[in-house]
């Protein structure tokens, strides 16, 4: 049996928060990209929070994270590949031999002695059948047809920050399947430690939006939750405006000239707005 899952961060965009900040600022600035610098971390993070509150989520696609995931079942990996805005490199059952007892046991099975016995007997029978087929010269790519969803797998997965937030919305939910929820929560902890400004309020849908899309199937935890993305919007905007005075002089001059341009009247970019 496999304990799993084990999750590690292999690599990420070198400075994910800076990449997102520059991408956001570049949208409304005619200055060279190299000159778009935040005077301090607070200025950078304030703009990022304003982007999140305004739901301009495409900016987050400039930051990506690559994870190593081990000790999970094929049942989990079948769910992962439904997240199409991600890249996967999965251990192949065609080229690797299925070893003894390399499978996951659901808690609902492990907690019942009789159910666990049935489960383990089935796994033993599958392992024996697999081994016999291989010994008879059947290729591993054909012997693997016996293997169950419980079979252990490992993979490397890359997602950008936007897809990660969507992934957390769905998979951190209490209604998500237990194994992928465990994986999502482990990944969320890593992301919040590595790039906290990009993953503010990230998590289950109700945590970010203060409501639940599950209807009558809702667990009810969302009731009474504030819609943090909206509640924080005004606060983040004011925080950003307060930090604008700390920007370098070239950015300030460029904003003043742009604010007076007649072609911007009535647009979101009037008055030197960042977005």
Describe this structure in words.
With 275 residues, the chain is α+β, with helices and mostly antiparallel strands. It is 44% helix and 11% strand. The chain has a four-stranded antiparallel sheet with strand order 1-2-4-3. Helix 1 crosses helix 2. It is elongated and about 70 Å long. The C terminus is likely disordered.
CATH class of the largest domain: Alpha Beta
Count of all domains: 2
List the total number of helices. Answer: 11
Distance between the termini: 52 Å
Q: Reading side by side through the largest sheet, how are the strands ordered?
A: 1-2-4-3
Tell me roughly what share of residues is in helical segments. Answer: 40-55%
Name its key features.
275 residues; Gyrase A, domain 2
Summary, kept brief:
With 275 residues, the protein is an alpha+beta fold. 44% of the residues lie in helices and 11% in strands. The chain has helices spanning 16-26, 41-53, 74-80, 107-110, 113-135, 140-143, 161-171, 178-194, 205-209, 228-243, 249-259; strands spanning 6-12, 64-73, 86-90, 152-160.
Question: How are the secondary structure elements laid out?
Answer:
Layout: E1 6-12, H1 16-26, H2 41-53, E2 64-73, H3 74-80, E3 86-90, H4 107-110, H5 113-135, H6 140-143, E4 152-160, H7 161-171, H8 178-194, H9 205-209, H10 228-243, H11 249-259
Helix pairs in contact: 1-2, 2-10, 7-8
């Amino acid at each position: 049996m496999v304990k799993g899952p084990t999750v590690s961060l292999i690599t990420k965009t070198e400075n994910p928060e800076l990449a997102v900040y520059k991408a956001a600022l570049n949208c409304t600035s005619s200055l060279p990209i190299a000159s778009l610098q935040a005077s301090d971390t607070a200025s950078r993070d304030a703009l990022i929070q304003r982007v999140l509150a305004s739901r301009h989520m495409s900016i987050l696609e400039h930051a990506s994270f690559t994870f190593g995931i081990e000790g999970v079942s094929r049942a989990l990996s079948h769910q992962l590949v439904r997240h199409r805005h991600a890249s996967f490199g999965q251990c192949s059952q065609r080229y690797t031999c299925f070893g003894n007892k390399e499978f996951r046991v659901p808690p609902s099975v492990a907690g019942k002695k009789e159910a666990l016995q049935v489960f383990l007997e089935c796994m033993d029978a599958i392992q024996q059948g697999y081994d016999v087929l291989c010994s008879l010269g059947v290729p591993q790519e054909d012997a693997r047809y016996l293997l169950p969803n419980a079979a252990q797998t490992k993979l490397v997965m890359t997602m950008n920050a936007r897809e990660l937030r969507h992934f957390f919305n769905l998979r951190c939910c209490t209604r998500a399947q237990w194994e992928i929820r465990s994986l999502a929560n482990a990944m969320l902890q890593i992301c919040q430690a590595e790039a906290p400004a990009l993953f503010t309020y990230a998590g289950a849908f109700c945590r970010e939006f203060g409501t639940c899309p599950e209807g009558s199937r809702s667990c009810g935890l969302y009731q009474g939750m504030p819609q943090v993305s909206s509640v924080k919007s005004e606060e983040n905007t004011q925080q950003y405006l307060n930090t604008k005075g700390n920007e370098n002089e070239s950015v300030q001059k460029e904003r003043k000239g742009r604010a007076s341009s007649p072609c911007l009247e009535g647009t979101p970019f009037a008055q030197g707005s960042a977005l």
